[in-house]
Amino acid sequence: MTVEDDSSADVELSTPKLVFDETDILYEEDCLRNQYSVKAWLRYIDHIKEGPNEKINLVYERALRELPGSYKLWFSYLKLRRKQIRSKCIIDSAYEEVNNTFERSLVFMHKMPRIWLDYCQLLMDQGKITRTRRVFDRAIRALPVTQHTRIWPLYIKFVTTYPEIPDTAMRVYKRYLKLQPECVEEYINYLREIGKLDECAKLFVDMLNRDNFVSRQGKSNHQ
Predict the structure, then answer these.
(1) How far is 123 from 99, CA to CA, in rounded Å?
(2) Locate the Pre-mRNA-splicing factor Syf1-like N-terminal HAT-repeats domain: which residues (predicted)?
(3) H or E, element range at 38
């Protein structure tokens, strides 16, 4: 049995046709009968997990057309797509295909911090500084404030990794401190590292003058 290549923009395939064998028929029929069953699609995917990437990806894409709101399917699919490109050169076009798959997922999964984090990490791995910052900002805007603490640690790690963008890092840190003011010592340490000593001293004095300040690093107001 063959499945012709789907010309839709939603499906990313590198071969014109894929071959499905007779053992797939039962799973195909199951999914046709239970097209809105996540379990049915996952059973099919588990059955073909040792097959070619294009075949597995196609079944995932079919499942997600029927169940676009399934976090379980999206999370599993995105994890697989990242695994598939792990051994490829960072500038391989396959990376951009996976980036685009993340973008499609966020149409439905924009309230899921795990998806945002995985996408941001993928962009960080590619060294896409501006794009990564914009995706982090989109995550902050999309998620409720109660979930921002999931995003900020990786965001801070990202902006402080690049010495060439200190102004960006400072702006991001200041936004972070509005939510987590107790982390001011980390910011002071960062300012010291990048040579922003005036700003560092100003914050240090302000920190010492706070009667209710409790050091996260175990220091007293006089240390």
Answers:
(1) 8
(2) 24-182
(3) helix 38-47
pLDDT interval class at 120 (50, 70, 90):
very high
DSSP assignment string, 151-165: HHHHHHHHHTT-TT-
Residue 133: other Cβ atoms inside 10 A? 20
pLDDT of residue 17: 61
- Whether 99 and 120 have beta carbons less than 8 Å apart is answered as no
The residue among 177, 110, 118, 182 whose CA lies nearest residue 147 is: 110
3-state helix, strand, coil in the chain (%, to 5): 65, 5, 30
Find where tokens 């690049």 sit. 162
Question: Cα–Cα distance between 13 and 27 in angstroms, integer?
Answer: 21
Q: Which two tokens mark 136?
A: 């982090």
Q: Which of helix, strand or coil describes residue 77?
A: helix
Q: How much is the CA Rg of the chain, to the nearest whole Å? A: 23
The pTM is what?
A: 0.85
